[in-house]
């Protein structure tokens, strides 16, 4: 996505949600080491963080010299390792690429603001084959991107509902995979050992054995 497009969205959002949106000079870029080697897209909500840093070079603070900022991606990186991936084999981006004053869980306007970014993210991801799945790191993403009936995370992690979520049920027109990093209440982190069947299913999807079936 060009910087002109991103700035245009930011200006629209700032006019629509002036109390929520931070008007900054720079927005984080997507992280991708090698486009030709991408096996999945890791999607976050937005770059807003509890350290109030608005100077991230890449999504999730990847490559930042501040170790505290690097910790934002650590849980996701652990999940990636559980399915045989490294951060150098994925494309890492946020749905909302702008900063907000409040983190997603405290941002009551986040869902409405995210709608402005969806068409632009679809365009940005056209560099990848439509079979490349999107790993959703938060239920907030699931709630705004899933078309039709919504299910609790346990339905997917217990394999009661098919994974990946088919592209025709996705606003991004791509297969969606819940890939949560939540360690509170119900632990959906793959390293917990709670979801071996789900973990094996994701390995089969990511590494091609099931890629032709969706």
Mean pLDDT: 91
For the record, what CATH class applies? Answer: Alpha Beta
Computed Rg: 16 Å
Strand order of the largest sheet: 2-1-3-4
Strand content: 5-15%
- What is the overall shape? globular
Structural class: alpha/beta
CATH topology description: Uracil-DNA Glycosylase, subunit E
Q: What is the chain-wise order of helices and strands? A: HEHHEHEHHEH
Q: Helix count, per DSSP?
A: 7
Counting DSSP E segments of at least 2 residues, the number of strands comes to 4
What share of the residues lie within helices?
25-40%
What does this structure look like?
- There is one protein chain.
- The protein has 214 residues and is α/β, with parallel strands linked by helices.
- The chain has one domain: Uracil-DNA Glycosylase, subunit E (3-Layer(aba) Sandwich), CATH 3.40.470.
- The protein has seven helices and four strands, in the order H-E-H-H-E-H-E-H-H-E-H.
- The protein has a four-stranded parallel beta sheet with strand order 2-1-3-4.
